Amino acid sequence: MAFATTDDVVARLGRPVADSTEAARITAFLDDASGLVSDYCRTDFQQHTNETFELVIEGGQAQLAPSLFPGLTISAITLYDEDQDRVLTTDEWRVVGRTLFVRCAPSYTAITVTASWGWAAVPAAVRAAVCSEVIRWLSVSPGTVMEKTGDLEVQYAATAYNSGLSEAAKSMLSKYRQRAASISLSRTNEPEIPWRFSTTT
User: Fold this and answer.
1) How far apart are the first and last CA of the chain?
2) pTM reported for the whole predicted model
3) To the nearest 10°, the Cα dihedral for 21, 26, 27, 30?
4) Is 8 left (phi over 0), alpha (psi -120 to 50) or beta?
């Protein structure tokens, strides 16, 4: 899903779309720029509601992916037990920062989490960054792709645009970029924290 629309580009371009060819280019560029922004920020800027995913609990804890933030709200956690699956009560787990602690979990087990997270709307800065990249790519001058000396025939086509994000766009997106980091896990007893659980971070 594109993070901006053709109307957003036109409003910033200051002129209407020239023709159907340019309209098609804008649509393609919007998809390209949105994909690059999503990869750079490591998030899709979408709202996810009551979706499920699996985590492996080791030593009573699991690290939550940065893409689950902001607005992570856990509605249910199901523990895979040897005898039967069991839905945990809210006093058997809690989220601290980006770590999920689970009480009464075996040292190594899998759980299913049902949760909601994400963005209710694409942030204005993200939409602006996408539009600025599209306009930058549209401004690339056409280049010569064929010459013919007899009867002087010359044809033009758009040159290949720089498909990477500009430094200006990266600067605009810096606050939305999820940082990748290595995670160290160790086997521990119950975390030494009060169990005033929180389902929202």
Assistant:
1) 26
2) 0.70
3) 160
4) alpha
